[in-house]
Amino acid sequence: MGSEGQELEGNVLVAQSGGPTVVINSSLAGVIQEALNHPCIEEIYGAMYGLRGILGGNFIDLAQESQHVIRGLRHTPGAALGSCRCRFQESDMDGLFHVLESKNVRYFFYIGGNGSQCAVRAIEAHAKKIGYGLRAIGVPKTIDNDLAVTDHSPGYGSVVKYVATTAREIAIDDQSMGDFDLVSIVEVMGRDAGWIAAGSVLARHMGTPFDAPHLIYIPERSFSDSEFLASVQKVLENNRYCLVVVSEGIRNAAGDYVRTSGIKDPLGRTELGGAAEHLQYLVEQHLKIKARTTKLGISQRSAAHCASLRDNEEAFQCGVKAVRYAVEGESGKMISIVREGDSPYAVTYALTDLDEVAGKVKTFPEAWIDESGSMISSNFFRYVAPLIQGEVAVPCKGGIPEYVHFAGTKKVEENLFQKKR
Hints:
Layout (H helix, E strand, L loop, with lengths): L9 E7 L7 H12 L5 E7 L2 H7 L2 E3 L5 H6 L20 H10 L2 E8 L1 H17 L4 E6 L15 H21 L5 E7 L6 H5 L15 E3 L7 H12 L4 E7 L12 E5 L5 E3 L2 H13 L2 E6 L3 H4 L6 H20 L4 E10 L2 E9 L25 H6 L11 E2 L2 E2 L7 H12 L1
Parallel strand pairs: 1-2, 1-4, 4-5, 5-12, 6-8, 6-11, 7-8
Antiparallel strand pairs: 2-3, 9-10, 12-13, 14-15
Helix pairs in contact: 1-11, 2-4, 8-9
């Protein structure tokens, strides 16, 4: 329990940030449902579009939303409150706390990745500085699985379930083609860490070495054009096709991305994309072999129809635990998942000081990369296999998945549109 163990009476504010996952709304549902159980919590507000929504006072009353919608969050992709990508500035602090005080916000939960955890740390520190009673807890989220300390991040299990499934389906299609010497290249997300690409190894059948994907390239190992070409040729000596999975953030020996768009994102980072096209060019120009690319893009983080039930349940529990810990007096922490065992698989939920998370990147372990540098070792299976277990039941209407949205978002959206006009 934190230093201020007594309950604070006041309101909850929850927001979402960064790239969505198919389970980010499950964490939101956990926050809402648990907050409803505590008499010290009076109102439950949701900020539209992350920190921008907080600064603009664009809130919706989540306690007024129907239970049907709150339950439906458990299978709805995207960020139900809207997300943002922006750097939090110290100059924003006075305006932000003016809003928090005006709404008597005493509990703040931010669902997001590294940047979001940095923001929680800054907000919690400022609250202490000015003597404002606030409990701020970070709820982890990222498909990249690169948050420090936590065994894995909510969102990761679902993305690798989708990527591995897609890789297997592409492989079956490639195998069925009549022509030999076909190279398929699948590009997945992963700027600084190769966890997603590595997860595609689940598509391989254990004990049959020629199953796809045949080659996997991640940012943790420098990429060599010549070594890649030699590896493709070696695969094609024993197979009618070669399936490659590559992280968008692979770099050459000089540390430069093999391909970028040349455009800067809202955080000032170079936008990635084009790694698959680079590999395609190498194959077609140097090996004179047909190559095609598949870029999974946003589909890999929004494929609710292929979500992991275990991932969904853990994301929900992260939201629940965040509220419980905050009510007990904790602040300035992130919920982390602690693995207690692989067989049977078991986890507990703990608190991690934000100083141990903010600004840090958990890269893919060197021990799980095989000697060739282009494949993931079997030791990784024990870690990743439990994370994709189970399927989420997504209700359908007219044969298409039926998702939910907050009724309160319509008015906020209309107001934002009028301001834009």
